[in-house]
Amino acid sequence: MFGLGMPELIIILVVALIFFGPGKLPELGSGLGKAIKSFKKASEGEDEEKKKLESEKPASV
């Protein structure tokens, strides 16, 4: 996807572990997961709202 292989991911994880410490990593992961879920929900809501508005438009002749 972004050209990240296993060595790059391990380096990122080690840097995050050093920077934030082992106690904060689960909290950061949880917060990131919630943020992604919220973003997906919001973007899907916009799509549904757009479809709903299009279906309510009167047919033009």
What this model shows, in words?
- The protein is mainly α and 61 residues long.
- The protein has a domain of 31 residues.
- Helices cover 77% and strands 0% of the residues.
- The chain has two helices and no strands.
- The chain starts with 5 loop residues before the first helix and ends in a 5-residue tail after the last helix.
- The model has no long low-confidence stretch (mean pLDDT 81).
Number of strands: 0
Q: Level of helix content?
A: over 70%
Specify the overall morphology: elongated
Major sheet details: none
What fraction strand? Answer: under 5%
Model regions low in confidence, pLDDT < 50 over at least 5 residues: none
Rounded mean pLDDT score = 81
Number of helices: 2
Classify the secondary structure makeup into a structural class. Answer: mainly alpha
Rg from alpha-carbon coordinates: 20 Å
| Separation, N- and C-terminal Cα atoms | 46 Å
Q: What order do the SSEs take from the amino end to the carboxyl end, as H and E?
A: HH
How would you sum up this structure in a few lines?
The chain has 61 residues and is an all-alpha fold. Helix content is 77%, strand content 0%.
Task: Please write out the topology.
Elements: H1 6-20, H2 25-56
Spell out the key features of this protein:
0% strand; mainly alpha; 2 helices; 61 residues
